[in-house]
């Protein structure tokens, strides 16, 4: 079976987000922002999975664009958690690097899918 890099990376990212949520709620006693980052951070992988079985190229592009938006929102919550001292700069840098890598992959996938779709139509 062919390796699916975005599928694997988005799942690993979701696992990190769940662990971050547990850390924030158990150690830092932060319950509002942590829930926001949990929702957006785990939905990236869910949308990637939905895109896997898209009904059309347009549907695939749409689902990947939602994953891109969710990752962008996740980046916002991570920045806010850092600026409000719930995350250290080192913690932020580590997870932010993964998030940026994933959003770049998603952006590249969307561009390629749009280009391929335009060549056919």
Describe what is shown at a glance:
83% of the residues lie in helices and 0% in strands. With 121 residues, the protein is an all-alpha fold.
Walkthrough of the structure:
It is a single chain. The protein is elongated and about 50 Å long. The mean pLDDT is 97. It starts with a helix and ends with a helix. The chain is built from 4 helices and no strands. 83% of the residues lie in helices and 0% in strands. It is an all-alpha fold and 121 residues long.
- Based on CA atoms alone, the radius of gyration comes out at 15 Å
Poorly predicted ranges = none
Residue-averaged pLDDT: 97
Structural class assignment: mainly alpha
The 3D shape can be described as: elongated
Distance between the termini: 30 Å
How many extended strands? 0
Q: What fraction of the residues are assigned to beta strands by DSSP?
A: under 5%
- The SSE string, one letter per element, is HHHH
Q: Describe the oligomeric state of these chains in a short phrase.
A: single chain
User: What does the largest sheet look like?
Assistant: none
> Approximately how much helix is present in the residues?
over 70%
Count, helices: 4
Quick tags:
single chain, 121 residues, mainly alpha, elongated
């Amino acid at each position: 079976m062919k390796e699916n890099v975005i599928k694997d990376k988005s799942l690993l990212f979701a696992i990190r987000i769940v662990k971050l949520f547990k850390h924030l709620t158990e150690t830092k006693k932060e319950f509002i922002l942590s829930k926001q980052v949990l929702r957006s951070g785990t939905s990236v992988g869910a949308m990637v999975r939905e895109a896997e079985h898209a009904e059309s190229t347009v549907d695939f592009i749409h689902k990947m664009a939602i994953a891109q938006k969710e990752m962008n929102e996740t980046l916002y919550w991570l920045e806010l958690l850092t600026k409000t001292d719930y995350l250290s700069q080192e913690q932020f840098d580590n997870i932010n690097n993964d998030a940026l890598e994933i959003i770049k992959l998603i952006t590249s996938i969307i561009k390629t899918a749009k280009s391929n779709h335009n060549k056919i139509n």
